[in-house]
């Protein structure tokens, strides 16, 4: 046994009868279990909880990598694993203590999607239950996890999807709630029952299960992309500012000095597209700026255009993040204000470019947030409808005649993308053909309305960002 691994706490504390087995658990699995409890019992974000638990358990980088795989895989496949566990246990998971369910999910992930030998997956699940939850929980864990181990993942999926329709089966086979499968189908085909090329829906869903390599952006005028390329990065496929690089971004001096930052390529492209439409120089507005990724790229591009940026953000703590992200640029180029973008503190009809990157479900970045697909609900998407409409309406009102407005979401869901623009765009604006401003990006017209751009992880390697461009008349 590794000296750092955990010995049975209750036995050491003398709570167990003499004949109870001595149990051991390695730190990576213990930390993974504690992280899952943070996610499920306290609503924590998996990535933040992972970092916290890696620190608390003092994990080595190898242990942290195993812990990350255990947590991310278990979170992504949670819905499918739960159906398997119910079938294996012959009972609803509601009849079990939630912490026991997390032990079982972790064991199921090791059995079905990692190459953990069966005896190791079973015994570590039982030991984890004994140590973390008490000896009386080991029987049920042992019984259910052994039944899971009798079939491989394909056999379980075949059994569970027998007689199911295509979308229901895809939901289980790709680890997504059914409503997201339907939303992706609508966004890709243009309508709920529209035709799709063979395999495209599955490819889109599977792309959510692959964690992206970190993408960096150089701040125009502050950092040359060559500097990051020389440091082990490779150029992004489309954005002239992007670099893909394995490893910890803050190892780079340019990142520490805020001359570069982490930013998905999709976010870079939608900001770039806004600046490519012909418009006069002047003042630009970022209506929903926090934490400031697009605001910083826009500030660099505004400087080259002889323009300046006003960045608005509703929440003070996020406005602080915007200030930090803009700090490396001279202060005469930008200003940050805190306020509700639907109740502007600025004169209307004045900005030559307006970015409305509105609050949304964030469904476009499922690949980097393993737990979020099971936390979000279809209902929540609808709840943002009025705010998204009001913010786009205010973005239009803030633009000067001839000015350009970008409506952006990190979501491909029709209800918060095309529907919002089609609802709000009126005689004040012309809807532009957004795809022509990203000529280097193939296949990016939104199926729901070809005047809009929809990026996809499986097609473009970016988050699923949506972009509409409007010209104020
Ligand atoms: C999608 S995020 C923007 C991301 C940002 N553009 C970036 O690239 O870093 C949306 C932001 O809008 C802010 N927000 C929410 N309601 C708002 C409102 N009524 N007015 C202005 N900002 C709002 C949120 O706090 C959040 O920071």
TrEMBL record:
Q: Which InterPro entries match?
A: MeTrfase_RsmB-F_NOP2_cat (IPR049560), MeTrfase_RsmB-F_NOP2_dom (IPR001678), NusB-like_sf (IPR035926), NusB_RsmB_TIM44 (IPR006027), RCMT (IPR023267), SAM-dependent_MTases_sf (IPR029063)
Per its UniProt entry, what is the enzyme's top EC class, as one word? Answer: transferase
Q: Name one GO biological process term.
A: RNA methylation
Give the annotated active site.
Answer: 410
Please name the SUPFAM superfamilies in this protein's record: NusB-like (SSF48013), S-adenosyl-L-methionine-dependent methyltransferases (SSF53335)
Q: Which GO terms describe its molecular function?
A: RNA binding; RNA methyltransferase activity
Residue ranges annotated as transmembrane are: none
This entry's Enzyme Commission designation comes to 2.1.1.-
Pfam families, sorted: Methyltr_RsmB-F (PF01189), NusB (PF01029)
Q: Does the keyword Phosphoprotein apply?
A: no
Q: Which residues bind S-adenosyl-L-methionine?
A: 288-294, 313, 340, 357
Query: What does the UniProt keyword field contain?
Result: Methyltransferase, RNA-binding, S-adenosyl-L-methionine, Transferase
Residues of the SAM-dependent MTase RsmB/NOP-type domain:
189-473
> Of which family is this protein a member?
Belongs to the class I-like SAM-binding methyltransferase superfamily. RsmB/NOP family.
What this protein is called in its record is: Ribosomal RNA small subunit methyltransferase B
């Amino acid at each position: 046994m590794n000296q750092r691994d955990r010995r049975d706490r209750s036995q050491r504390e003398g709570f167990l009868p003499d004949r109870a087995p001595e149990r051991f658990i390695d730190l990576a699995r213990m930390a993974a279990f504690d992280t899952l409890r943070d996610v499920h019992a306290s609503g924590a974000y998996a990535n933040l909880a992972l970092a916290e638990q890696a620190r608390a358990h003092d994990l080595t980088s190898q242990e942290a990598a195993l812990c990350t795989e255990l947590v991310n895989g278990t979170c992504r496949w949670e819905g499918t694993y739960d159906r398997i566990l119910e079938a294996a246990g012959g009972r609803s998971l509601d009849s079990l203590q939630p912490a026991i369910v997390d032990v079982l999910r972790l064991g199921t992930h090791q059995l079905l999607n990692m190459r953990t030998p069966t005896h190791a997956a079973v015994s570590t699940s039982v030991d984890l239950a004994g140590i973390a939850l008490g000896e009386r929980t080991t029987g049920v864990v042992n019984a259910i996890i052994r039944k899971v181990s009798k079939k491989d993942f394909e056999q379980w999926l075949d059994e569970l999807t027998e007689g199911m329709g295509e979308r229901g089966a895809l939901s289980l086979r790709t680890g997504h709630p059914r409503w997201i499968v339907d939303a992706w189908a609508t966004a890709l085909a243009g309508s709920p029952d529209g035709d799709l090329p063979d395999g495209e829906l599955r490819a889109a869903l599977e792309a959510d299960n692959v964690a992206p390599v970190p993408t960096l952006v150089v701040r125009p005028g502050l950092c040359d992309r060559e500097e990051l390329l020389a440091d082990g990065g490779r150029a992004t496929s489309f954005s002239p500012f992007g670099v893909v690089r394995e490893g910890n971004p803050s190892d780079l001096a340019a990142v520490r000095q805020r001359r570069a930052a982490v930013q998905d390529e999709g976010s870079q492209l939608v900001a770039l597209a806004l600046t490519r439409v012909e418009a006069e120089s002047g003042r630009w507005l970022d209506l929903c700026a926090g934490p400031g990724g697009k605001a910083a790229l826009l500030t660099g591009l505004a400087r080259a255009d002889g323009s300046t940026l006003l960045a608005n953000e509703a929440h003070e703590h996020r406005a602080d993040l915007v200030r930090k992200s803009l700090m490396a640029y001279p202060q005469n180029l930008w200003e940050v204000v805190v306020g509700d973008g639907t109740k502007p503190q600025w004169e209307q009809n004045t900005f030559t470019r307006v970015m409305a990157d509105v609050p949304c479900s964030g469904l476009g970045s499922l690949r980097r947030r393993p737990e979020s697909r099971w936390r979000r609900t279809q209902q929540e998407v609808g709840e943002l409808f009025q705010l998204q409409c009001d913010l786009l309406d205010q973005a239009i009102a803030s633009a000067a005649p001839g000015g350009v407005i970008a409506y952006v979401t990190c979501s491909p869901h029709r209800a918060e993308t095309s529907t919002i623009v089609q609802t709000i765009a009126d005689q004040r604006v012309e809807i532009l053909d957004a795809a022509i401003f990203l000529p280097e990006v193939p296949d990016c017209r939104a199926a729901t309305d070809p005047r809009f751009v929809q990026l996809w992880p499986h097609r473009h390697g970016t988050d699923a960002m949506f972009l509409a461009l409007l010209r104020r008349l």
